[in-house]
Structures are given as C-alpha cells and as structure tokens.
C-alpha cells in the first residue's frame, strides 16, 4: 500500500489539517493501491498563503533562473520516468507500453516546449508607434486543477508555463489519480524549486476545488475537466473577477470522404477513438462518413473493433486497459444501453465487460452505426471506447453536421483531395483540426471553441496564458 498522506506546501511535506482520507484504486483489479489525505478549505488557505509569500521573489527572477529550474526538473524527470510509468499504470489503468510511450513522455514534451518558449519570448518591447513600453508580467498566484485521464500531461502543461511566467501556484490533481502528481512534486523538490513557488494539496472539487476558485488571493484559475465542472469553477471565480482558463469536454467529429484510403482511414479512426480506452477529451468519437462508402466503412469498423485487444495494464502490448472507475464504467454502460434503446445499430461491442474480465472496469470496444446527430450518443461525451457512425451526402452537409455540437475542442478530416482538406478545415468550428492522421506537437496551441473552453495551452500559447500585459508610457 502506497501511503501519501501529506501535502507539499511551502517547500515541505506537511500534515493535512483535516482527518479525511481516500483510497487510490487500481481500476484493473478494483483493489486499493494507495491512500491519500483529502484537503479542506483551511489547507487551501495555507497553500495559497505560501504561494502568495513566494510570489514577489519568484516574479523578479530572471529568465535564466527560471530556465535553469526547468532544465533541472527535466533532468530529474528523465531519471525517474520508470516511476512515472508505474504511477500512471496503477492510478488510471494505462497499459505499460502506452504509459511508457505516450503518457509519461507528455511531461517531458511540455517541459521542453515551455523551456524553448521561455527562452524566445519577448517580455518587453516598444509599442508600434514608440513612446511606450509593453511589458509581460506574471499573473500572480495561480490555482491549477487537473484531470485523471492524461494526468502528467495536464499537470506539466500548466505547471511548466506558470513557472516560466514567474507565477506561483497551488495544484489540485484529480483525487482518483493523484500518484503521478505527488511524484511530480517530489521531482520539483529534488530540482530545487524555491519554497512556496509550487504547492500541492489533494482533495475533491466541491471542497478544495471550490475553495481555490473562490479564493481572493488566487489571481488565476486554470482548469481541465468536464464542462459541468468548468462551469462551476467559472461561477465560483466570478465574484473575485480572476482570470479563468478552461479546457473542457468534446464530442469531436471525424469527417471521412469517399476519396480517402478507406481501410487506412477506418483503422486510424478506431485507434484514435479507442486510444486511452476512449478517455481523451479530443477523441474523434463521431465518425461522419460520405454516404457512397458508408456501408463498407461500417463493415470495416466492425472488423477492426473486433480486432481491438483489451488487456491487463501490467502486461506489455498494444492493448487498451480499463476505464478509470466503477462510476465511469456505469456511466458508459448507461450511454450504450440508451443508444440501443434509441435505435442505433450495434455493430461491435455492446453492454457488459469483455469476455474473461470479471474484475476491473473494462469496457468492450463498441461501435454504433445508423446514428443520427440528434441522438444522445452523438451529442454526449461518453469518455469511453465508444464510436458512433453517421452518413452524410455532401461536403456542406458534413461540415454542418460536424459543427452541430455544443463542443468545439477538435475535429478530424480524411480525404485524398488536399484542396478540399484545406477548404473544409477552415470551416470546422474547433480549436484543432487534424488532417489525414496528423498529430499535434507540444508547441501547437491546444484548446477549444464553444463549451470546450477558453484559452490555449502548450508552448508559447500556454506561457501567454499566465502573463499579464502592462503598458508603461512616459511624457
């Protein structure tokens, strides 16, 4: 049993102020693998006070000093990557190979992209007409709330630019996947992060998250999670008029035209949807297929879904693992059952666990055909390995259907016509558009339109999120 009962506040591991504790459960076998303390509003006050006290000194550090700290963090992180692999596997069920090749490297990716952005950013420049100085300064004390699905990815995407900007911070990671965050705190401590610059407390959203969002001494909230929770953060933050950056949910469309390489496109579509057991906010979960190849596309999707392996995260291999929790498993089952009741045609997977899995929160890779864009399964973020397929007749109809969603985090586009690709991409209302299997890099902006949030993360765009702009004008 991993015991992590302390919080990291003011450069030290300290005891929590409340008595509540929570088990960390391995979703692959439903057994507790760790225990953490749950914070209170008083713990938030203590952490914010430490960050507030540290802010003046850290805000005045040079670019070279901040860069040196990030470089030291990178060195420690690289040395301790096997520990990060293990933490992510235990806390959220990421298979060993996937954790090692994609989840853990995300932390390094963000640290290095932020380091490059810090070294190239112009923190001071003259105004276009001269006579004034435009200065970028740190926002102040930042509250960071991160999710469980890509735990270290989202932690590094917030902590690294906050450090680079000269901000101090309080991090609340997901309480159901906290092990990677606690390990990251150890890394920052080992790298010599000044006391109070980075602070970590565990806890739930209604208690710790709400206290952070409403805290008068927190100048900015950066939140990644569900749209429902993001709305709560914004509402709690409103009375103090603090900056709020939100990266929220998605129901990303994947437009597949008849002139694409159909077999490759379908295989890519399923792999991308089922990646991380479907627990990615930008997963291409709505596959919109040009009608003339729709029936063949459905057959291929059923075939490839049947070939998708589900397996124990402790084993190497290209299989998917469980979903995060019993609660999430039940939610996904409810979505699947409602889709069947609504008349969607089940062509792969379905309710229940895969054969051979009596324990653990494993979900069958599932594909629905003959879905309409008005069905709940096409409009609701399932956050599991569930794909819906919808036919469209014309390019215009496909674009309209793709945009007919309250979300706008990502969109995908597959076609053999480059002119069409460029044309359609510009008409899709989403923060990211991926053409023919293109994948993002760590320095490309990430964020969404509409109810998928506001602000942009990664690289220079993430750095700018944590900066204020000041004009200094002299007579």
UniProtKB/TrEMBL annotation:
InterPro entries: Ald_DH/histidinol_DH, Ald_DH_C, Ald_DH_CS_GLU, Ald_DH_N, Aldehyde_DH_dom. The keyword Nucleus does not apply. The active site is at 247. Signal peptide: none annotated. Coiled coil: none annotated. Residues 13-472 form the Aldehyde dehydrogenase domain. Keywords: Oxidoreductase. It comes from the Bacteria. PANTHER family: ALDEHYDE DEHYDROGENASE, ALDEHYDE DEHYDROGENASE-RELATED. Belongs to the aldehyde dehydrogenase family. This is Aldehyde dehydrogenase family protein. It comes from Roseibium porphyridii.
């Amino acid at each position: 049993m991993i015991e992590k009962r302390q919080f990291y506040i003011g450069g030290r591991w300290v005891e929590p102020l409340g008595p509540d504790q929570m088990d960390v459960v391995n979703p692959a076998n439903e057994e507790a693998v760790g225990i953490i303390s749950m914070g209170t509003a008083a713990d938030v006050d203590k952490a914010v006070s430490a960050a507030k006290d540290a802010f003046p000194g850290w805000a005045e550090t040079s670019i070279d000093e901040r860069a040196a700290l990030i470089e030291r963090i990178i060195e420690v992180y690289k040395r301790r990557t096997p520990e990060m692999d293990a933490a992510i596997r235990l806390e959220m069920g990421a298979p060993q190979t996937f954790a090692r090749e994609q989840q853990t490297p995300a932390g390094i990716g963000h640290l290095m992209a932020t380091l490059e952005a810090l070294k190239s950013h112009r923190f001071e420049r003259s105004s276009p007409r001269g006579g004034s100085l435009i200065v970028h300064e740190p926002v102040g004390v930042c509250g960071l709330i991160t999710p469980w699905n890509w735990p270290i990815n989202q932690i590094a995407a917030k902590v690294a630019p906050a450090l680079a900007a000269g901000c101090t911070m309080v991090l609340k990671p997901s309480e159901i996947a906290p092990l990677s965050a606690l390990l990251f705190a150890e890394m920052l401590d080992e790298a010599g992060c000044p006391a109070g610059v980075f602070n970590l407390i565990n806890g739930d959203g209604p208690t710790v998250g709400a206290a952070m969002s409403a805290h008068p001494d927190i100048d900015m909230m950066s939140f990644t999670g569900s749209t429902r929770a993001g709305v709560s953060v914004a509402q709690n933050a409103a009375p103090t008029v603090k900056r709020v950056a939100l990266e929220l949910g998605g129901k990303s469309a994947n437009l597949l035209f008849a002139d694409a390489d159909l077999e490759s496109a379908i295989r890519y579509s399923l792999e991308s949807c089922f990646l991380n057991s479907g627990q990615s906010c930008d997963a291409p979960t709505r596959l919109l297929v040009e009608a003339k190849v729709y029936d063949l596309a459905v057959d291929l999707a059923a075939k490839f879904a049947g070939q998708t392996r589900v397996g124990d995260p402790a084993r190497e291999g290209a299989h998917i693992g469980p979903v995060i929790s019993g609660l999430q498993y039940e939610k996904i089952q409810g979505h699947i059952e409602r889709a069947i009741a609504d008349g969607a045609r089940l062509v792969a997977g379905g309710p229940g666990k895969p054969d051979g899995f009596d324990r653990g929160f494993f979900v069958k890779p599932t594909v629905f055909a003959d879905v309409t864009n008005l069905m709940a399964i096409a409009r609701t973020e399932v956050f599991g390995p569930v794909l819906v397929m919808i036919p469209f007749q014309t390019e215009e109809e496909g674009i309209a259907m793709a945009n007919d969603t309250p979300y706008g985090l990502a969109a995908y586009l597959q076609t053999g016509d480059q002119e069409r690709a460029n044309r359609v991409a510009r008409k899709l209302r989403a923060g990211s558009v991926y053409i023919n299997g293109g994948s993002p890099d760590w320095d490309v902006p990430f964020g969404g339109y509409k109810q998928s949030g506001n602000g942009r993360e990664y690289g220079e765009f993430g750095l700018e999120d944590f900066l204020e702009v000041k004009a200094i004008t002299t007579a």
